[in-house]
Amino acid sequence: MQLPQPYLLFRTITAVTLSQLDFYVRELDVTCNFTMAHQHPQPRHLEPEQLSALWQACCSNDTAPLAHLIETLNPRAEDFAPGLWSAIQRNDLHMVRYLLERGAPVNESAVEQALQARSIPILEMLREFGWDDVNMKLRNTWTALK
Questions:
Q1: Which residue in 52, 72, 114, 136 could disulfide with 122, CB within 3.0 to 4.6 Å?
Q2: What is the rounded CA–CA span in Å between residue 129 and residue 131?
Q3: Do residues 117 and 91 lie in contact, with contact meaning Cβ atoms separated by under 8 Å?
Q4: What is the mean pLDDT of residues 17-32?
Q5: Domain residue spans in the chain?
Q6: CB neighbour list of residue 132: distance below 8 Å, 6 or more residues apart
Q7: Which top CATH class is 48-128?
Q8: What are phi and psi for residue 117, nearest 5 degrees?
Q9: pLDDT digit string, tens, across residues 109-136
Q10: Cα-atom radius of gyration of the chain, to the nearest Å?
């Protein structure tokens, strides 16, 4: 998980001397205020029709309709999961990357879909986006290495 900018800045404060602390605290206040003033609204729960439209857009080879839906609906990251699974099954590397970049969950189901699709590039992409447990127990009690 990537931390918001103010947290990253706060982490650097621990490495400075006390004489420099005042400067960094003022900088942190400015950064926090800027971030809070420009935050995006919280993702919301979607209606079934909206989820269906989102998932259908994930089945397209074109990300433009999906980008429009994401902008207007502001879905939760977990709402991308079925669309991600569909993109993995189709071996659509472009759509898989697009969804992962927007927070689609890298979980057991995504790994299983990639294994069933026998797609090494997608498995590598899942590793790039956070899958780090190659010994993760899958539903069939196997691991990705078996």
A1: 114
A2: 6
A3: yes
A4: 46
A5: 5-37, 48-128
A6: none
A7: mainly alpha
A8: -80, -10
A9: 999 999 999 999 999 999 999 998 877 7
A10: 19
